[in-house]
Design goal:
- This protein has 456 residues and is mainly α.
- It has one domain: Serine Threonine Protein Phosphatase 5, Tetratricopeptide repeat (Alpha Horseshoe).
- Helix content is 45%, strand content 8%.
- It is built from 17 helices and 13 strands.
- The protein has a three-stranded mixed beta sheet.
- α9 runs antiparallel to α10.
């Protein structure tokens, strides 16, 4: 039964995603695709990786890595455009698109929410019903958040009426036309979905591939940090850590493994698992880590050996929290520590900020005879502590799609960060707050839906 339903929904998704915003003249027969049992709704939401894949476009466009010239020359047009911040990125030549993946998740979520609308759970089904409904809200919220990070400008309060938000779909009926919402409304919608999820989800989930209340709090913390609402971000990070705050002692990891981090089920820091699909050279083995990032780790910092594979003349990343070549981009305890520390620092609670940061870093540091070689960071000025936390974010959260997120949010606060790449003897620069931080929407979506393209 599960296979039949999934197959039918693939057909419906194919119509949705090929046409994307195609306003069909003939009404679809939704009976073909709508499940009617709780186990069937759950099966849809468990359909990994169709549910649970992140957008890789932001990571491709970020500056934590580089490719050799021959590899850049071999890229397809869209990938080369993202790598060099070229406004001409059609997307139609790519095997997979974060836009397609994101709206597939939105469609699955809406299908479940539509089906649950008329479902009357028995008393013994109420908790399962709430859980599934919470998962659907969560997945829809996360999908839109991931897409907004790539295809919308950075958000702050002054940009609430900016028109470059996303088309917000709240129904599985893809005949209903939608237009781009304002940026402020897009982020309100994301927040509303995650808040609904937090109210409905269980404290813990059966699997790290399924969201929990802790995961909803984690994404609300990430969202609030992105929009500069530091008090709210701190609250949600603390709510998340109150449920689950276990850190891995990196001294317990096996450095001899190709991927030293534990597998997902055994990774104590993973709260909710998502991964983005590597393509071609944009993979753990293809992306060469920028030398200055590697040099920023101290010698007794175990991340310097755990995170990187030594190659002849360059290093690649192997510290994936998947414990494999899959590139983790979900929610984890280390990120919550860093959000908590940054928010304390921005509120001038410097002692608390350093206490949180010291606890995290001590678990990353080398021990000798059971004694840590880590020396706690002494009190400093507010600006110094903020910059220290941001530096540790970059080192700890490497290759998780969060560098693009950080550059956009920090530039919105006036950080004045420019990205640079060198290719064939030429230096390419992406200045702060450039329109190209919102990537072009796939050209086939624009042609069919007639929604407005991003300026670039």
């Amino acid at each position: 039964m599960r296979h039949k339903i999934i197959t039918l929904i693939y057909c419906a998704c194919a119509m949705l995603l090929v046409s994307c915003e195609n306003f069909l003249d003939e009404k679809s027969d939704k009976k073909l695709a709508v499940p009617n049992k709780l186990k069937d709704f759950q099966a849809l939401l468990d359909d990994y990786p169709n549910v649970g894949s992140g957008a890789n476009e932001g990571e491709i466009s970020a500056d934590d890595y580089y490719l050799q010239n021959s590899d850049v020359n071999a890229l397809i047009k869209s990938d080369k455009g993202m790598y060099l911040w070229d406004g001409d990125i059609p997307h139609i030549d790519r095997l997979s698109s974060g836009w397609t993946n994101g709206f597939r998740e939105v469609y699955y979520s809406n299908l479940v929410l539509d089906g649950l609308e008329g479902y009357k759970p028995d008393d013994h089904e109420k908790s399962e019903f709430d859980n599934i409904k919470g998962q659907a809200f969560f997945i829809r919220g996360v999908a839109y958040f991931n897409m907004a990070l790539v295809w919308s400008p950075a958000y702050n309060i002054g940009m609430a009426t900016n028109k470059w938000g996303l088309p917000l779909r709240t129904s599985s009926d893809f005949n209903i036309p939608v237009t781009r919402a304002e940026l402020g409304r897009t982020f309100e919608f994301i927040k509303e979905n995650l808040e609904q999820a937090a109210m409905l989800l269980p404290i813990h989930s059966q699997s790290k591939y399924r969201p929990s209340r802790a995961a909803a709090f984690a994404y609300l913390a990430r969202l609030s940090l992105y929009i500069g609402d530091f008090d709210t971000a701190l609250g949600y990070a603390e709510d998340c850590l109150a449920i689950y705050d276990k850190l891995i002692d990196y001294n317990t990891l096996d450095i001899k493994k190709n991927y030293p981090m534990p597998a997902v089920a055994a990774n104590d820091e993973v709260i909710y698992y998502r991964a983005f699909t590597p393509q071609g050279k944009f993979s753990a083995t293809g992306m060469r880590i920028v030398e200055s990032i590697y040099d920023s780790y101290e010698d007794n910092d175990l991340r310097k050996t755990m995170f990187f594979k030594e190659n002849v003349g360059y290093r690649t990343f192997r510290g994936n929290y998947s414990g494999s070549s899959s590139l983790f981009c979900g929610a984890a305890v280390d990120e919550m520590y860093l959000i908590r520390s940054e928010c304390y620092a921005r509120d001038n609670q410097l002692g608390n900020a350093l206490s949180v940061l010291n606890k995290l870093l001590e678990s990353r540091w080398k021990k000798v005879n059971g004694e840590s070689l880590y020396e706690p960071i002494e009190p400093r000025s507010k600006d110094e502590v903020v910059q220290l936390v941001l530096s540790e974010r970059r080192k700890q959260l490497l290759v998780r799609t969060l560098r693009w997120y950080d550059v956009k949010r920090l530039n919105a606060l006036g950080a004045n960060i420019s990205l640079t790449r060198n290719f064939n003897g030429k230096t390419y620069v992406l200045p702060p707050n450039d329109p190209r931080y919102a990537l072009p929407i796939p050209i086939n979506v624009i042609e069919i839906s007639k929604i407005e393209q991003n300026p670039n």
